[in-house]
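For concreteness, we quote verbatim a single protein encoded this way:
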Amino acid sequence: MTAYKNIIQSFSTLSKSFIALFLLGLMYSCFDIELVDRAQLNIVTQWEKLDADVTVPSSYTVEIGQEKLKFSGASNPLPDLLPGDYKVVVYNDASHLSVNNNIATVTQSNGLVNSMPGWFFSAVTNVTYNDNVVDTIIVPMKQQIRELRIRLHAEGGSKENIKEIQTKLTGVAGSWDLMTNTATGNAREIALPFVKQADGTWLAVVRLLGIVGNRQTIVGEIIFDNAVPKDLHIDTDISSSLIDFNVNKYLPLGFTGNIETPTQAGFTGSITDWKQISQNGIAW
């Protein structure tokens, strides 16, 4: 009988040991899970190359995975996501401009692209989420709107009779692909709002996402007081002057040219003697 009791006690002791080991294993297993920390990533936006007249936007949007976040300030934490590779798209809100499916588009009216959209910036980068990783992602923001200034010097016998200059620039981009950083869509047109200056020249200032296609022209009419002489039609190819317009957009681009006014009707005007005036951010 004593032998049976010993056997039972031994079995009971073994059972308790197995149970204790099993519970201990569960505890260690839970402990291991708690030791794994999800990635902690911080995004820092850099706003270094800006047009001289531009200020850093007060807020911006970050799209990552299925998340669309609104941030302010240069440094912000990215959301808690599962391990993997993610594309990050960053951009700010700007007037007369919208972003949809990573395509930025300037608003249009009467078939013309808005000539003065707000300053717009974007950046695209890749991030990798791994457990137990703490990292900072530096994102240089690119200025995507460039200022173009065109100044015309009127010459000839009718220059004092100019009432207004109604022209438009063809071959401009209405949309910009943020993923590829290139102009997209069909070539559009934009009005050139020429205003007479105190020195007698006529100045037009516009902001563009970029140019598209191989041909950009200034077309329109010079309107004279009392229709004397009759309207002068303008048609000038300026493609060669805008070849690199889509590069270094933070530098405003300025040109000056001469327009000859006739003393009689029947002429087509052409802007000549194009000269680049400014590409260093300094007003002129």
